[in-house]
Design goal:
heterodimer; A: mainly alpha; 3 helices; 68% helix; B: FAD/NAD(P)-binding domain; D-Amino Acid Oxidase, Chain A, domain 2; Glutaredoxin; 3 domains; eight-stranded mixed sheet
Chain lengths: 60, 541
């Protein structure tokens, strides 16, 4: 498996809306903490160290 | 004059005037500076192999204070081979359960759940003075059996002169100075090693800007025998983390992480320590303070643990943070690695270059320990705002979700390193379990009577499983023992087959004196064994 950098999310506008919605009403610190938890949850779901490493690179 | 730097817990080697004072310098095959856990383990191992060894210590016994308290299975196995392990296990507190808290919330608990079929427990807690005392007890026993070990208390090394073929040592005693010569010198003189300084050698690494307060308290409390660790503890003024852990004799180790900018003298005042301990244990808790200390720590190592005829072992060679119990445990593994090699070199059965493999292998071990200990420290004391955000995210998630628990790092407990890919290794020609691969330390397993590691002892050993071993009793003067096992008959629990054969029907292992695997084959002949012994003793094929 390679890191998928092609469009892969159904209803991208809907997802983006949900992502921002999850932050609504949060302070900066709360948002930072939420983001950290979200990254850890997603990283665990991916699991594959090569893909995670490629994602860390892609996000730079 | 010999300065007294600390008080003694056990007076084990009282000063006696040596006949060496006023005489011409005597040459010794091996001299060890420092009678701590590492120096005594090395002396015991060498002496039991018949190599004369002299230990110089600037005190008359073991210093007070529990200091190292957590001894790992591999250390206990090494000490068992040396005749000191059972006393340690009998006295020590065996523990398996750890709980991790954040504030007053329990994040999760873990059970080390040691695998069945090992003689030694996964861990014991035991005060360092007992650990050292049991090693010295074993030395006294070995001496009475004729092993050539001598300990000289209150003999302080004041100077070292390195020559091509020996080392000159200047020593001070209450009766004045004298000199001796050593073919080989082992410096086990601790993190501030005067030997290292006298040789002008560097000790590079990373300093962690934090102070930890230790309070060992004596109390009869009905807390369970568990390791309790708090991130952001809820008790007043308890710092960024805290630890509660049981030792023998109703002593509890309490550890508070206080931060960098503190007034050490003020924090060490008994009333200030008691205020913190009261807050943790509850007002009115009945206890006495046994030992207190504030420590900071570094992670660093020497570039090379061998400098000609001087060898460094334990804290003199490498230093780690205490999280993970990788200090004394790794030092005892240094002694385990060095003793058989130096024994063969002293006896002329292996080239001096074999000692370079000591440095190579134990530098590899030290780097693994420093890496683990640095990662734990970075989790405990996040170095940036975002690392703290992630640390706390892990702790929050770990309360609800199992996936985050392996990310919580309050110290990864010491396990022996595998000498993967290093120069003494022979072929790995058995499709056996990875845990028993070439370079790994042998896993214990039950036998019909006793345990496998007891059988391995401290020589080169051929372990033949379900196949006839080749006939090799000796390789160029180095003894090779043979153990032939039929797993249908000699493996009542099936653990030997599971740990050494996996799916394979038969196999042959060659095992070093320190119980690491040299080579393994599905089947091997005498030439295979001889070649691997030569490789493992620094003589190529």
């Amino acid at each position: 498996m390679k890191l998928n950098l092609a469009p892969n999310i159904n209803d991208p506008d809907g997802f983006y809306d949900e992502l921002l919605g999850a932050h609504s009403g949060l302070s900066k610190d709360e948002s930072d903490a939420f983001n950290a938890r979200l990254i850890l949850v997603l990283a665990n779901h991916i699991g594959d160290r090569d893909i995670l490493r490629a994602a860390l690179e892609a996000a730079k | 004059m010999v300065d007294v730097r600390y008080d003694i817990a056990f007076k084990l080697y009282p000063y006696e005037k040596t006949a060496a004072i006023g005489a011409a310098p005597v040459r010794h095959p091996v001299v060890i500076i420092g009678g701590g856990p590492v120096g005594m383990a090395a002396a015991l191992d060498l002496g039991r192999k018949g190599t004369p060894v002299l230990v110089l210590d600037d005190h008359e016994g073991v210093g007070q204070g529990s200091r190292a308290i957590c001894f790992a299975k591999r250390t206990l196995e090494i000490c068992d081979r040396l005749g000191a392990g059972q006393a340690m296990v009998d006295k020590g507190v065996v523990w398996n359960v750890g709980k991790v808290f954040r504030g007053d919330q329990k994040v999760f608990e873990f059970n080390l759940q040691p695998e069945d079929g090992h003689k030694a427990p996964a861990f014991i807690n035991l005060q360092q003075p007992y650990f050292e005392k049991y090693l010295v007890d074993a030395i006294r026993k070995a001496q009475s059996d004729g092993c050539p070990i001598e300990i000289r208390g209150q003999n302080a090394v004041t100077g070292i002169t390195v020559h091509d073929d020996h080392v000159g040592v200047d020593i001070d005693t209450p009766d004045g100075p004298y000199q001796l010569e050593a073919d080989w010198l082992i410096a086990c003189d601790g993190a501030r090693s005067p030997t290292r300084d006298m040789l002008g050698l560097r000790f590079d690494g990373r300093v962690f800007e934090d102070n930890f307060l230790i309070a060992d308290v004596k109390m009869t409390a009905d807390f369970p025998t568990e390791r309790w660790f708090w991130f952001e503890p809820p008790f007043k003024d308890s710092g960024a983390s805290a630890l509660l852990h049981k030792q023998p004799d109703d002593i509890w180790r309490i550890d508070f992480q206080l931060g960098w900018d503190i007034d050490r003298a003020k924090e060490l005042k008994p009333e200030n320590i008691r205020a913190r301990v009261d807050a943790m244990l509850g007002e009115g808790a009945d206890y006495t303070l046994e030992w207190t200390s504030i420590y900071t720590f570094q992670c660093r190592r020497m570039e090379n643990f061998r400098h000609g005829r001087v060898l460094f072992a334990g804290d003199s060679a490498h230093q780690v943070s205490p999280f993970g119990a990788r200090g004394a445990n790794s030092g005892v593994q240094d002694a385990d690695n060095l003793a058989w090699k130096l024994d063969l070199v002293v006896k002329g059965r292996a080239p001096e270059s074999l000692l370079d493999s000591y440095s190579q292998e134990r530098v590899h071990g030290a780097d693994e320990n420093i890496l683990n200990s640095t990662r734990a420290t970075d989790f405990l004391t996040p170095k940036s705002a975002i690392s703290k955000v992630f640390r706390n995210a892990v702790l929050e998630l770990a309360q609800k979700h199992a996936f985050a628990r392996p990310l919580v790092n309050s110290g990864r407990l010491s396990v022996p390193c595998v000498y993967d890919g290093l120069s003494l290794n022979g072929p790995d020609d058995l499709n056996g379990p990875a845990r028993s691969r070439v370079g790994a330390s042998c896993a214990d397993a039950p036998m019909a009577d006793g345990f496998l590691l007891e059988q391995l002892g401290g020589d080169f050993t051929v372990l033949a499983l379900n196949t006839a071993p080749p006939d090799v009793a000796d390789v160029d003067g180095i003894a090779v023992r043979t153990i032939e096992l039929d797993t249908a008959r000699d493996d009542p629990s099936g653990a030997i087959a599971a740990r050494y054969l996996g799916e394979e029907p038969h196999g042959i292992y060659l095992i070093r004196p320190d119980q690491h695997v040299v080579a393994r084959w599905a089947s091997a002949d005498a030439a295979d064994i001889k070649g691997a012994v030569r490789t493992a003793t620094g003589r190529g094929q």
